[in-house]
Amino acid sequence: MSLRFALGTKPQCAFALCPVQVAPLKSVPRWVNASRRLSSLSPSHRTRAISHYPCLPTLNCSLEYGQVRWRLRIPTTAFSSKTASNNSAVAANANATSQRLKWKLIARIAYYLRIPFLVLSVYSIGYQQGIMDYSRDPKKMEASLLDTILAGVGCISTEDRAGVLVAYEGEWRTILARFRANHRRRAGEDGAYDEEYRRVLMLRNVAVVGERIVKVAQAHVKQKLKEAVRDATSRLPPEVLDNETRLYSALEELEEVELWTRASRHMEGPWKYVLIPSSLPNAFVSEILPHRIFITTSLLQKFVSSQDELALVLGHEISHLILGHSSAQNSFETSFRTIEILLLSIDPSEGLLSLAFMSFLASVRGAIGASYSRENERTADELGIKLTAMACYNTREASQVFHKMHLHNIESGMESSSSKVGWGGLLSFFDSHPPSDERFRSLLEVGGLSRIGLEIILCLTN
Q1: Hey, which bits of 210-367 come out as E strands?
Q2: Which tens digits make up the pLDDT trace of 250-307?
Q3: Does an H or E element contain 73, and which?
Q4: For residue 4, what is the enclosing H or E element?
């Protein structure tokens, strides 16, 4: 007679999940004896015995086909409840861990983003403070900004600043006569014209040419604004054209219309021409002090020998203002510096490696900014030569100013005499201006009759 130890499905699952040690097969007779003793008890005594020993299993003995089958019936209530509690504890721990990781990630993102927000907040506070200072005392603020601009071109000493000359629009007609009258009263003292008189002649020349360039620039901006509005309205639906409020809102959202509207605001109004005694050759227009053209005596003495060349220089600088290059460059610098600060905040390195990372970011910013600046210079050259032609100046003679700059740069070692520097050669990533020889050749091409013949015809008809 063979002995088989049979288990049902549910007891198997209970044994699989329960850490209770099962009695070996050789101890089964003990369970048989216990079962026989329990079955010999009366029902009341059997119930009391089982309740006194809750973990005691019950063995059912039966005969089946001449074989003895022992079926072990295990109470699974305690096992299943303990398993469920273990599963719930594991799930709770996993949920708590997931929550901690999520909040840790949110805290890390907030830590990284707070620095750019702080930078933008400081920038906004400074901008608002500048507006408040300007509204309180505009003249004092303009004088402070003028001192900053003069210091940027090397005009620092009191004598140099006393030599700064300013001509208002239309004043060039009388500025020289007034100076001659004052100089005759001093002629008996010094007996000759001095350096101040030569600078007054420079200022008069700048005012004469600048007034013509400004007028054609204002006309050009008005024409471009009309064309942009006409092209925009031709693409708008009739229901927008019939509503004036919706029409203005739709036009303000267009980039082309916004560009020429902003340029019109920059160009309208009386202009001033500022001559700065400085050894640094430079000319520029600043948005922080609008309606002013700044030019140094060194630029006029070294590179400008005719009104044609002066017209191209002034037209180039006004083109920067019309095309909004200064505002775009400022926005680029602010955005890139914010990104740079964000990257530095998440840099895990320390010490010298962190300093190397800072130098790398500064180099990348300088290279990208220089590339952006070179493209701005090329577009300003194209519009500047166009304004020169519209003001009835000789564009081929005007282009010679960049040839002179090229020769000067060769002598100083800043450029090579080889044409490969500007035409297919390696260009320095950190140069803010294209090579002068490249600009000279490009302006000769753009200044041909085939490219700006219409401007020359308009000049001849006026």
Answers
A1: 272-276, 283-284, 292-296
A2: 888 888 888 999 999 999 989 999 999 999 999 999 888 889 999 999 999 999 999 9
A3: strand 67-73
A4: strand 3-6
